[in-house]
Design goal:
six-stranded mixed beta sheet; 11 helices
């Protein structure tokens, strides 16, 4: 399941330039008079693409209806999520024979996503990725966080809230995640006045992860302000006379308009904000990605929804900047 060195280096270079590679796919097969919507996900999260017919899915007793079962891939068992079902579509057994399973990595959680067809891979600029809005098309906007357009086309390509999918498809995992956020309040953390009285700013386009992060900060008794993308956070910083009211910045990497890489770059290049602590909070948790953002000026790198590590990192920021 390893990504080739060439792919990693290319992805890193794209990220530096506020760009990404999108794997474009459809979750339905076309039929006469109907062309299904297109969807996209960051190629960096894709580990393999499998032919559906080549892998037998073993059913799991009492599994969530969105989980088709497990497949074995070189000795590793992966849950297969029925992406069409999550989107409100049915796929026949005959269509499953023709389908594709995208093996994906989200914060070291490997899952298979059932889709109908891979359209291809396109390079995009994050400034061309727009936040979700109301669409005059048969698509569930609660599951879509961003959109762009296919290359040389006016056809929309929707980017799904995969974190929301994982939470809904794997409720046991979701319960563990949110329980860990709630249980933080059971511990006593003696943060210094600068951390307690100032505000944590964080940029995150997934509403599910925003809810989780807010819960963690609330349980810790810390002030926070959330932004749906990096540009909104940067605009807020620009509007401040100084940054004395800000304790630290958490940022996702994959966001519309301005990515986390842009957040790091612009904060460090701006004299007013250059000294702010920056923590990257992302599901793109490869070692190469960690090295890349740290070399750009981030202070710490945290995998998504790792509550213990988030708390430990806030303490590290306190020790580094406010001791």
């Amino acid at each position: 399941m390893s990504t080739t060195l060439e792919q990693v280096e290319k992805t890193a270079q794209l990220s530096k330039n506020n760009q990404l590679s999108l794997m474009i796919f459809q979750v339905q097969f076309p039929r006469e008079g109907y062309e299904p919507p297109y969807y996209g996900m960051n190629v960096f999260k894709v580990r393999e693409v499998l032919e559906g017919r080549a892998f037998e899915v073993s059913e799991m007793p009492e599994a969530n209806p969105l989980i088709e079962g497990m497949v074995e891939l070189r000795g590793v068992y992966l849950p297969v999520i029925d992406l069409p079902k999550w989107m409100g579509f049915d796929m026949t057994e005959e269509e499953k024979e023709k389908s594709i399973i995208i093996v994906s990595d989200f914060s070291h959680n490997f899952v298979g996503l059932r889709v109908a067809h891979i359209h291809g891979v396109e390079e995009k600029n994050w400034s061309d990725i727009k936040p979700a809005s109301n669409y005059n098309i048969n698509v569930n906007t609660n599951q879509v966080i961003n959109h762009t357009y296919l290359e040389n086309s006016e056809k929309l390509c929707f980017i799904l809230d995969i974190e929301k999918l994982l939470i809904e498809a794997m409720p046991t995992m979701a319960e563990k995640i949110f329980s860990s956020a709630k249980s933080v309040g059971n511990e006593s953390y003696d943060f210094c006045d600068q951390v307690k009285e100032r505000t944590i700013l964080f940029a995150e386009d997934s509403k599910a992860i925003q809810k989780y992060m807010g819960m963690v900060f609330e349980q810790l008794g810390l002030k926070y302000q959330a932004f749906d993308n990096g540009r909104l956070l940067l605009n807020h910083l620009d509007s401040l006379e100084d940054t004395s009211s800000v304790s630290m910045v958490f940022t996702d990497l994959e966001m519309p308009v301005a990515s986390g890489h842009t957040v790091i770059k612009e904060i460090r290049q701006n004299k007013k904000t250059s000294a702010l602590p920056i923590i990257v909070h992302t599901s793109m948790t490869s070692e190469n990605n960690s090295r890349e953002v740290l070399s750009m000026g981030a202070d710490f790198f945290v995998g998504k929804v790792d509550t213990t590590l988030i708390v430990e990192t806030i303490k590290k920021v306190e020790e580094k900047y406010f001791a």
